[in-house]
Backbone:
């Protein structure tokens, strides 16, 4: 079945090629550059480097910056609310949820992050994390020290521009969540959620119509502002109407146009 991680190179080979020294021989440098490009093309950090066409020395700088990787087991936290902010994290493999806790002790899911996306941007403004980041499956992240990223961004304006684009995208995504919670019915919220999830997975080379949900129905409900029974009932309704095939966490979209029609019905 489909999983939500991106295939990567053999870890030992990828790390060795990224760290191997560049000799004074020009061909050796070219070989290292090409090997590093291959490693990046299989790495979820490619958003930060490949699209902006960094040179070989710039790629080497970035490689040294993100040399640390961290494994987070399913159910464990990458960081908690109130933890000091020191790094942002690029999800290399796996799936995370972010959540905040209300004063009455209830948890509110604020997002789901998959391979190729960043975690930790919430800590930039206050130097402390404003949410918990919990692994929904065994995951691995690249650790990017933020102070060093700032220094590198000042040195390479293209990298700074790309990082600003990523932060802007997060703001736009937050606006989309506000739309979900503010004006959509339950069916429209779930349809929009599933379409967004499959679109993000498809951009990473997976099926545009089939997926395995890494989150529970309860977590989906928390994110969409719906009760658990409402989420379950809506999944059943979609299946009865021929929009989906549902087998526990295995989902196959059978009528994408029908789901899009539901979402488009709320647009001006």
Residues:
């Amino acid at each position: 079945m489909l999983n939500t991680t991106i295939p990567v190179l053999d870890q030992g080979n990828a790390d060795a090629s990224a760290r191997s020294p560049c000799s004074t021989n020009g061909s050796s440098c070219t070989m290292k550059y090409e090997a590093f490009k291959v490693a990046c093309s299989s790495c979820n950090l490619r958003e930060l480097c490949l699209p902006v066409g960094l040179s070989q020395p710039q790629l080497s700088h970035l490689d040294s910056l993100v040399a640390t990787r961290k494994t987070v087991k399913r159910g464990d936290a990458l960081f908690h609310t109130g933890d000091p902010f020191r790094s942002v994290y690029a999800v290399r493999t796996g799936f995370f949820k972010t959540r905040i806790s209300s004063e009455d002790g209830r948890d509110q899911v604020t997002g789901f992050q998959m391979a190729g996306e960043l975690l930790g941007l919430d800590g930039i403004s206050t130097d402390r994390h404003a949410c918990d980041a919990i692994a929904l499956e065994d995951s691995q992240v690249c650790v990017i020290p933020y102070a060093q990223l700032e220094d590198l961004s000042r040195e390479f304006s293209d990298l700074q521009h790309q990082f600003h684009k990523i932060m802007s995208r997060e703001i736009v995504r937050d606006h989309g969540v506000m739309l979900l919670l503010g004006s959509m019915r339950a069916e429209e919220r779930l349809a929009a959620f599933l379409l967004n999830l499959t679109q993000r997975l498809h951009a990473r080379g997976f099926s545009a119509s089939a997926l395995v949900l890494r989150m529970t129905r309860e977590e989906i409900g928390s994110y969409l502002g719906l009760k658990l029974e409402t989420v379950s009932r809506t999944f059943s309704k979609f299946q009865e109407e021929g929009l989906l095939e549902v087998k526990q966490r295995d989902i196959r979209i059978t009528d994408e146009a029908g789901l899009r029609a539901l979402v488009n019905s709320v647009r001006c």
